[in-house]
Design brief:
binds guanosine-5'-diphosphate-alpha-D-mannose; binds magnesium ion
């Protein structure tokens, strides 16, 4: 299998999947990711970051690791249990809200403009800076309240902090590895708000950010962990950045 690929992209893409009770979703998302990377002949690995899920997610992750090859740095199929530094890191949800089919567009945009970060956006219909896509971004499956919370969160941060990124609260992103390390070291908030803080910090540090329109589909299995506490923390986080950046 290895020898049939002669790819010009020599980078490695490390996908980080945070999981909490994703036993049902993990095998399918890993399969979809594997297919995308194989199809595009890219070197890849998946790192599952599980927080002691009671539903047995870790056992499923271990089974997948033995199926796909644990921690081996094979050219096309490896599944690591610890963070090993690929050249680029993709962070995305494991519940299909973020579809792997968008990853090749992230990679093309990164390459075309030598970007530090590419983020998925639900709130633009064309890629930024230049690459145009036919499919507009959007959200499917959320009720009006959740849509308003998301729009409100973006509006608040955009108005107060002006980072010039249309979807600050999304978490489907590709980072150049050293850039991710740098931003994480600067980021202080915990919970949902850190997605927004990472992007605001990145812009303040002068990193380049491109956007690819994505459709966000709400999960079918399991529940979201967004609650009222997170909304309050988010508003506090925007205020802290407004007064401190
Ligand atoms: N390791 C770990 N993973 C977690 C935890 N809580 C959630 N996750 C994982 O993080 C991903 C997103 O969690 P959800 O609970 O599904 O989030 P959501 O409400 O759908 O929110 C999504 O959209 C928001 C934007 O509107 C994003 O801000 C958020 O990051 C996420 O992408 C999933 O893969 C889930 O298993 C945790 O405590 N620990
Ligand atoms: Mg979700």
């Amino acid at each position: 299998m290895q020898s049939q690929f002669a790819t010009s992209d020599t980078h490695k893409y490390s996908v980080i999947l945070p999981t909490y009770n994703e036993r049902k979703n993990l095998p399918i998302i890993v399969w979809l990711l594997a297919n995308v990377f194989e199809k595009h002949q890219l070197a890849w690995e998946i790192i599952v970051v599980d927080d002691a899920s009671p539903d047995g997610t870790q056992e499923v992750a271990r089974q997948l690791a033995s199926l796909y090859g644990e921690g081996q740095d094979r050219r096309h199929t490896s599944m690591a249990s610890i963070l090993s530094p690929g050249d680029f890191v993709i962070i995305m949800d494991a519940d299909f809200s973020h579809h792997p089919k968008f990853i090749p567009q992230f990679i093309s945009l990164q390459k075309a403009h030598n970007l530090d970060i590419v983020t998925g956006t639900r709130y633009r219909s064309t890629s930024k800076p230049f690459l145009r896509e036919a499919t507009p971004g959007g959200v499917h499956g959320w009720d009006l309240k959740r849509k308003l919370v998301s729009r409100g969160a973006n509006f608040l941060a955009d108005t107060m902090l002006s980072p010039g990124v249309s979807d600050l609260t999304g978490s489907f992103r590709l980072y150049r590895l050293p850039v991710l390390r740098h931003i994480i070291a600067e980021t202080v908030s915990k919970g949902y708000v850190f997605q927004m803080e990472m992007m605001v910090r990145a812009r303040a540090l002068g990193y380049t950010v491109g956007e690819v329109p994505i459709t966000f589909v709400d999960r079918i299995f399991g529940e979201s962990k967004l609650g009222a506490d997170e909304i309050v923390s988010y508003a506090k986080g925007v205020w802290a950045l407004f007064t401190g950046v």
